[in-house]
Amino acid sequence: MKEDKENIDCYVKLFEDFFRGCTKGIKLLFWMLLCMLVCFQICLHIPQLRIYLSFVYRTDGIPMVERNVKDW
Length: 72
What we know:
This protein is mainly alpha-helical.
């Protein structure tokens, strides 16, 4: 009976160590992704970098002036 209790305590300690390690990893991943998102958004505000970062900006095309369109 005492041996079973020691085995259970050992497994609980292993699980707590594993859980603590996973929690640290997930927190680190979250903060890293958040920082990358902020940096990416800042880079999108710079016109010279926006061309390379945004596919939509490259395919946007030239704006059309209404006065030049006669098919409306």
